[in-house]
Amino acid sequence: MRVMWRASGPMTVRQTLSVLKPEREFAYTTVMTILERLWRKGFLHRARRGRAYEYVGIVSEAEHTAGLMHQMLSVSSDRQAALAHFVKGMRAEDEAELRRLAEEASRRKGSR
Hints:
Order of helices and strands: HEHHEEHHH
Radius of gyration: 19 Å
Number of helices: 6
Shape: elongated
Number of strands: 3
Largest sheet: 3 strands, antiparallel
Distance between the termini: 37 Å
């Protein structure tokens, strides 16, 4: 997914493979299988380009990360404690940004 998130547009399997090659040797069929699985799971959109498919991310990295955070909170038996530990481990800048976002969300809810 990181390759798709960094891409400037849709990518074929061959293009994706060329980006991955410097990091690690993957077989074409392995990359094709991974992209197809990500498409089936709803992370990618695909469209025909000649005989190949082009893939592009549907969900941004930020949206994916937020989804994982919500998923982890939903299975916690103690949401309050989980949130407290999460905030306790934050950098000061992230904590300030979280406060700003919470205040902004609160104002939006109050104006409805």
